[in-house]
Amino acid sequence: MGEVSYSLYLVHTLFMPVEQRMEPVIERLLGPAAHVFAFLIVAATSWALSVLLHRYVEGLGKAVLNAGRGRPGVQGANAG
Length: 80
Fold this sequence. Notes:
Elements: H1 5-30, H2 34-68
Helix pairs in contact: 1-2
């Protein structure tokens, strides 16, 4: 979780308004358990998007920056 925590911090704020709009709809269908289901849906979606954001934005950005600095361990840097 440490690697993804910043991405999760950025993404979770996007889904808080969605949860507030989703709860009344789910509450009509499921009753009092709606809050739990809405939380689980928002938490799972936030986590999935955070993992993707970390992998494809942060991870690639770090690789590009490290390659530009000639750091070892990055593909294409210090070859040979």
